[in-house]
Amino acid sequence: DEAHTKWVRDYSDAVAPYSEPGGYINFMDDDDRGRVRDNYGGNYDRLVETKRRYDPDNFFRINQNIAP
Length: 68
What we know:
- The protein contains 3 helices and no strands.
- By secondary structure, the protein is mainly alpha-helical.
- It has one domain (2-54).
- The relative contact order is 0.13.
């Protein structure tokens, strides 16, 4: 429900300044792309280019998806 989702996101934003970069990626929805980018760090842009080249139709899209 939206109220719970907002509470979790607000909490996450509040503790972010005190957290280490990166994190554990488990199952994520499409609206969690920021977490995917953050966890891949400097490799994210290179992975996007690889995905565009080898999987432009996004066949491999389950868990930690990098959209082409």
